[in-house]
C-alpha cells in the first residue's frame, strides 16, 4: 500500500472517529435542555430520517470510491468522471424525492408512534419534527457522492474535513437553537426539537461547502487527469450504475441495522407500555432506552470496532490469495481485539450504570437499570459490525442481509410480548435476542466458507472473562468505598468522580493482568512496540 494511501486512510479514520466522538459528546448539554420528553420527540423524527438517508446514501462513498479507483488504475479517468457527473444529477433527484416522500408520509408515520392515551408529545408534534429533518435529505446524497469521488482519487482529506465540519456545525446549531428557544425566548419544546433535527440540514450545508472548496482548489489537477485518459473503455451508464449498486448494497443493509431496530421500538413501545398501564411514563422510558442509554452503549462499540475493522483489508487479501494460515491469524486477532476491548468496557459500564448515567445526564433509577441491562448488548453490536465486515471481505455479504432480516424478525415477534412482561427492559431483551441471532448466523457462515475454527477465540474469551470478573470485583469494591466517602446521593459531580476513580482502578487491574500474562502483547504488540519485549505465549 502506498504511503499516500496509508496517510489518507489514517486521515479518514481520524476524521470518522472525531465525528463520532462529537456525535456522542453533544448529548451531555442536550439532555438538560430538552429532557426526556424532548429526547423522545427528537428520536421520533431522527429514526425515520436515518432509514431514508441509509437507503439514499449508505455505501455511496465507498462504492463510488471503489469504482473511480478501479477505472483510474486502468487509465480510464473519464469513465469515473462520467459516473460522477451523472451521479450528481441522480443524487440530486434522489435527495429531492426522498425529502418529498418523507415530508408527505410524516402524517402517516406519526399515528403509529403516538398512542392517544399518552400524555406528552402529540401526533402533530411528531409530524412537525419529521418534516423538519426531511430537508437534510436534499443535500446529503450529493455530499456522499462527492466524498466518494475524492476518495477514489486517494484523497481522504476532503471527506474527513467535511465530516468534522458537518458534525460541528450541526451540533453548534442544535445546541444554540435549543438554548435560545427554550431559555431565552421561552418557546415551545416542539419548536426547539424541530430546530434540533433541522440542524442536520444546516450541518450538511457546511459539509457540502467544504467539499465545494476542495473541488475548486483541485479542479486544475482533476482536469489534467482527463487529458491522460486512454479512452479505450466506454461502458454505458446502465452498466456503470449496476456495478455501483453491487458495491454499495452490503453497506446499505449494515447501515440500516440500528435504525430498523429503533423503528420497531418506535412503532410498538408506546402501545405496549399503554397495554400494561404505563402510558404516563412511556415516553420518558422510551427516550431513556432508545436515545440516552443507547448513546452510552455505543461508546465502547465505536472504540472496539475502530481497532478491529483495521484488520479487514488484510482478511480480504488473505482470502483472495487463498492464504488460509494468514486468514486464520487475522480472524483470530480481529475477534480477540474486539472482545478484549468491548467485554470489560460494557461490564464496567453495567457495574457503574447508575453513576455513569448520572454523570452524563442526571440521576434516574430507571436510566441506571436500563443501562445495566442494555450495556452487555454492546458486545453483540460490535460483533455484528465486525462479522458483517468479514463477510464482505470473504465475498459472502449476501448473508448479512439474511442475518439482519432474521434478527429484525425476532425483534418484531418478541418486542411487544417482552415489553408487556418486563416493561422497558423487555425492549432491551428483544434487541439482544435479535442481534444474538444475527451474530450467530454470521459466525456460522464465516466458519462454513473459511473453515475457520473458533477454539482459540473461545479460550481467549474465557481468559478475558476471568480478567473481567476480577476487574468487576475491584470496580464494585471501589464503587462502594467512593459512595461511602462522598456520601453519594446521585449528584452529577459526585458521579463523575466516582466513575473516574472506579474506571481507573478497573482499567488498571485489567491492563496489569493482561500485560502480565502476555495477552496485551499478543494483541497489540505490533501497534505498541514497547510490549514486544514482554510478549509470552498464551494458549
From TrEMBL:
The chain crosses the membrane at residues 47-68, 88-109, 129-150, 171-189, 195-216, 244-264, 296-316, 337-361, 373-394, 401-419, 425-445, 457-481, 493-513. GO terms for cellular component: plasma membrane. InterPro entries: PG_synth_SpoVB, Poly_Biosynth_Transport, Polysacc_synth. Keywords: Cell membrane, Membrane, Plasmid, Transmembrane, Transmembrane helix. It holds the Pfam family Polysacc_synt. It is found in: Cell membrane. It is a multi-pass membrane protein. Its main location: membrane. The keyword Transmembrane applies. PANTHER family: LIPID II FLIPPASE MURJ (PTHR30250:SF21), PST FAMILY PREDICTED COLANIC ACID TRANSPORTER (PTHR30250). This is Polysaccharide biosynthesis family protein.
